[in-house]
Amino acid sequence: MYIIIGGGGDVGYYLTRSLLKRGHEVLLLEKSAQRVQMLAEELGQAILKGDACEARTMEEAGVRRAEVVIAVTGEDEDNLVICQMAKKRFNVARTIARLNNPKHEALFYKLGIDVTISPTKAILSLIESELPGPHFISLLTLKRAGLEIVEVNVPAMSPVVGKKLSEINLPRKCTLALIIRNNEEIFPNADTVLQANDIVYALLSQEGEEELRRNFGTS
């Protein structure tokens, strides 16, 4: 598989090195001559000096035969430009963008970026999962379906405690798929009664996230 990576910082460097070890053909694009010179001894022909935001550089990199373009610069705007250009101008099948500000996620998806990776969001989710008390964690986004999988720890004072699922006003596109209670798995139905400290796994639309937070008292 031929993969082009935009951004030769630490993320781009380690990603390039790892993909090369797995047998992929990879080209890392970095606009800093000093950084290119620093990495060239190890990466050799797998690094090219140039700005991945520029169409001319992407042409030189052979983007028309690339199967994946990954943008991992430190600027969300640059990552968006790289992926959009690869997708719209050069018809690259798969684009992946590093997302430094999680607030930009909806915009990236709206503009056609296939996958976003947010280190900030990932670290926040890990921290929240380890903290005691109620939490609401986004585990996975299913971009093609416009859905996400979330984990909810039901607070003791939540308005849903003691209610059957059939009595709870869930978002329109929302399914409660699994409940963990005292380390036991429960596959819920309409008559399942929620209890304090239940850990609930739900599949829902991104638009319904805020409504579910309010209903469960985790907002």
Automatic annotation (TrEMBL):
PROSITE patterns: RCK_C, RCK_N. This is Trk system potassium uptake protein TrkA. GO terms for cellular component: plasma membrane. Residues 1-119 form the RCK N-terminal domain. The keyword Transport applies. The keyword NAD applies. It comes from the Bacteria. It holds the Pfam family TrkA_N. GO terms for molecular function: potassium ion transmembrane transporter activity. SUPFAM superfamilies: NAD(P)-binding Rossmann-fold domains, TrkA C-terminal domain-like. Residues 137-218 form the RCK C-terminal domain. Keywords: Ion transport, NAD, Potassium, Potassium transport, Transport.
